[in-house]
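Mods, move this if it's the wrong board.
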Amino acid sequence: MSLITVKTTADRPITAEMLNDDGARVFPCLEARNARWQYSLLSSDRDRMICTFEAPDSESVRQAYRQANVGFSKIWTAQVIEPEGVPPVWNEPILKVLEGSYPNGFTDEDWKEAHRLILSCDRDRDIEWVRSYVSLDKTRVVCELNAPDAEVIREVYRQAGILCDRVWSAEVLTP
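Not the wrong board. Structure tokens:
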């Protein structure tokens, strides 16, 4: 099984009713394709969401969403990276999501160097890395972080010379 990430952006706030309606349509399609929802991160302004699934492949999830007529922006297979020896824990009042896209991709060495630079700054700024999802082609990254605010994360990334697309506050939705 693979870890599949689905990014959704919405023109209007995602309501509980929309989530229930979409779920009622897509979950049977996902189940038929042997895909299992793990959790979702919904932005505090409710205009974006990142969902994670365990599934045979990204195409299975893409087909399920299309068959159910549930919108999405991107679907990709990801590798999860977590801190060693420390189980990740969300602190929902301060949970933030960082999205980064890198059209040329990055190498494992680039990741290690960026990670080294960021982690040293994180400790000084009360930022706790929970986990990251990296696309297999290394062109997309989603990081889950516990931090006092989004601006402190942007500042740390700017200081490290690493671009990010956006940082947003999140609420966790679980099965």
